[in-house]
Specification:
The complex is a heterodimer of chains A (about 200) and B (about 220). Chain A has seven helices and four strands. Chain A is α+β, with helices and mostly antiparallel strands. Chain A has one domain: Glutaredoxin. In chain A, strands 2-1-3-4 form a four-stranded mixed beta sheet. In chain A, strand 3 and strand 4 form a beta hairpin. Chain B has a single domain, classed as Glutaredoxin (3-Layer(aba) Sandwich), CATH 3.40.30.10. In chain B, about 50% of the residues lie in helices and about 10% in strands. Chain B contains nine helices and six strands; from the N terminus they run E-H-E-H-E-E-H-H-H-H-H-H-E-E-H. In chain B, helix 1 packs parallel to helix 3 and helix 5 crosses helix 6. The relative contact order of chain B is 0.18. Classes of the chains: A alpha+beta (about 200), B alpha+beta (about 220). At the A-B interface, helix 2, strand 4 and helix 7 of A face helix 3 and strand 6 of B.
């Protein structure tokens, strides 16, 4: 069986939209995935200001366009997706992901759904504990200090592998950021199978 | 010229100094040929330092930079990524030594589109691959004129255009782009959509061919 490392963040809209096509690829190629947390920078849309400079205007226009594109492809995938005005972080759920040794796929599905469809705070211990309970996964929640340590170590490991954003894929020694690379990733996985 | 208006079914914004625009040219041209359409190709001169910091290299080493570590990582990944796709297309893509002013060579796109649109492919062939091999000084108007000549496009009057009407037209269009929702290259404008990146070409194709069947997800072509 071939293998791939995949870096995700539950608050990343691109990672959310990559989940179904990535899962489909894993299934069709018989690939085993190792999922890693990657704590991205929280992305918000800057408010338009009368005195914004060119760089600020660029970042605002880019943020608006990216949100619209995510919503376009959510519609393409028939996937519910709601952007919050003041989005939550997701560190606790990401730290839990790193700690899981079973039920990983189910937890990923539940966490993405909780964030993008049910608008839940994945940094809230009550919310994350409920997700785990629903999935009958009995692991203790890490405290804030442990969460920070887990995610710092995960960030260093990701950096060592060349991952700079989510979703990130590391396969056959190459790093790919974004599901738009899935055709090439599929080619690499197929080559690995036939080798 | 208005940023979102065209007689063509698709507006394509490119910048010669963008590696991502470079590797979008072939698949976009392939789509144009496949559909038997003529797209409206336009230059968009990116002001990179305003949003991605600036840097200058000499002999492969960075000699000046105001980029943050995160911006550097992003730029390095972007070049590495563009390079591997360029190689698949049979091109060499070397990182640039500085951030070029590509306005002249981008005005060349408009010049060709106005005088010999059927020669655009030849103009892109004359400017893109040599620029990315570091063989072309795109800030020199005579170099751009040579490229026009190589592409089989009339060169007489280009210099006056580039410092007169062409410059005015270029600057006027650039000033409208952000307000129109355009911020990078390649950008594709059609119907009510503005999509940045060649990963949208499957969706563009689906839209331009009557939206038959389910819409495709984003993907790079190989």
């Amino acid at each position: 069986m071939t293998s791939i490392d995949i870096y995700i963040d539950f608050k990343s809209p691109a990672a959310y939209l990559a989940l179904a096509p990535t899962r489909a690829l894993l299934k069709s190629t018989g690939t085993r995935a190792t999922w890693h947390p990657f704590n991205t920078r929280l992305s918000t849309i800057p408010e338009q200001r009368a005195d914004e400079n060119k760089g600020e205007k660029h970042r605002r226009v880019r943020a608006l366009a990216r949100r619209d594109v995510h919503l376009l492809y959510a519609e393409v995938q028939n996937l519910p997706m709601v952007f919050q005005d003041e989005p939550f972080e997701a560190e606790l759920a990401l730290a839990v992901l790193q700690s899981l040794d079973k039920g990983v796929d189910a937890f990923i599905d539940a966490a993405f759904k909780a964030y993008w469809q049910d608008l839940q705070d994945l940094n809230d211990p009550v919310v994350v504990a409920a997700l785990l309970q629903d999935l009958k996964l009995n692991i203790p929640l890490p405290d804030t200090q442990s969460v920070n340590q887990i995610l710092d170590e995960a960030a260093l490991a990701a950096q060592d592998n060349g991952v700079i954003e989510a979703p990130g894929y590391v396969v056959a020694g190459q790093v790919f950021i974004g599901r738009e690379h899935l055709p090439w990733i599929e080619e690499l996985l197929a080559a690995d199978v036939s080798a | 010229m208005k940023p979102l208006e065209s007689q063509a079914p698709l507006i394509v914004y490119l910048d010669i100094k963008s590696p991502y625009a470079f590797i979008a040219v072939k698949p976009t041209q392939a789509l144009e040929a496949e559909l038997g359409m003529r797209f409206d190709w336009r230059g968009l001169t990116l002001d990179i330092p305003s949003y991605l910091g600036s840097a200058k290299k000499s002999a492969g080493k960075v000699v000046a930079s105001n980029r943050s570590p995160a911006q550097w990582l992003s730029v390095k990944y972007a070049y590495k990524d563009a390079r591997r796709y360029a190689e698949r297309q049979g091109y060499i893509l070397k990182g640039t030594e500085k951030i070029w002013d590509s306005s002249l060579v981008n005005m060349g796109i408009t010049w060709v589109a106005e005088h010999a649109p059927e020669r655009l492919k030849h103009y892109f062939d004359a400017v893109y691959p040599p620029f990315w091999r570091r063989e072309l000084d795109i800030e020199n108007v005579n170099v751009v004129i040579d490229c026009l000549g190589t592409a089989g496009v009339k060169t007489e009057g280009f210099a006056a255009y580039a410092y007169g009407h062409g410059r005015q037209q270029h600057d006027t269009l650039q000033a409208q782009l952000h307000d129109a929702g355009i911020y990078g290259v390649p950008t594709y404008v059609f119907d009510d959509k503005i999509l940045f990146g060649r990963e949208h070409l499957p969706f563009v194709r689906w839209s331009l061919t009557g939206k038959q069947g389910p819409p495709p997800d984003m993907a790079y072509s190989l």
